[in-house]
Amino acid sequence: MIGDILGRATSLRTAAASLDMPVLMIRAGLHSPLSDEDAYRFLKLVPHATIATIAGAGHLVARDKPLELAQAIGDFLLQDAVRDRRIGLFLTHSGADTLCHPGGTLARHLHRTAETLRNWGASLALIDAGRLHAAYGTDGFLAALADGTAREKIVAVVGREAETIIDCYCRCDRDRSYPTWHTDTPMLIDRSTGAHEPLSPEMRLALIELTVANELDVIEHDPEIAARFGAPLLRLFARWRPFLGDGARAAISRSG
């Protein structure tokens, strides 16, 4: 088998040089068969690759240092380029770039919303939720990118915390939930079941910030929606002002 692999070295190098996705190479730190020179040659072929050396591990890294290996893989999967690639592939495969939305396509709207949240200093989970905030369809945009019963699929793309935000955002009955969010008893009222769920302080903040980022993008790119709903939205945002960060407050002021 080794001879067969080595006999294809030229084609393997060509294939490696053509890789355009994020790449992680794991090296053993103890008597590794992959020398520093080998790693350097690989980086010349794939300059965007990440190389992780697991100190104290021999050739069978997973056996020798399983926790360290898991940490290295986990760190790699959280890199911006890797997360963006994973989310982008999901959006492409789910057809988000073919769905019309104010400002172009749904995919472009989702990207702009996430970038707005990033500029406001939002958490990584909230930014990723912004990239997929319409995954299950929303009160304002019914087309879904995934079946609401397949939540683990979205968890695999953005993680558990971001998916929980997405799920709440998509289930929200806006007309009934929004008026409670500035009160002492903020509620999420499910648009399908009518169930009332108390919101934690953290979830209230996340949903308010995501809602503001989403709606500001919509009214910026659709004059008709802005004319009909812009003023009521700004009045709503004024009630939410104590829960918003400086970036969101400044954006609302510019829109007003």
How would you describe what is shown here?
With 256 residues, this protein is mainly alpha-helical. The protein has two domains: 2-77, Rossmann fold (3-Layer(aba) Sandwich), CATH 3.40.50.1820; 80-255, Hypothetical protein af1432, CATH 1.10.3210. It is 58% helix and 8% strand. It has 14 helices and six strands. It has helices spanning 2-6, 9-17, 36-45, 61-64, 66-77, 80-93, 106-119, 124-131, 151-158, 160-171, 174-177, 201-221, 223-240, 246-255; strands at 24-28, 50-54, 100-101, 104-105, 187-189, 196-198. The strands form three sheets. A two-stranded parallel sheet has the order 1-2. A two-stranded antiparallel ribbon has the order 3-4. Strands 5-6 form a two-stranded antiparallel sheet. Strand 5 and strand 6 form a beta hairpin. Helix 12 (201-221) packs antiparallel against helix 13. The longest helix is centred in the last third of the chain and has 21 residues, at 201-221. The radius of gyration is 23 Å and the shape is elongated. The termini are far apart. The mean pLDDT is 90.
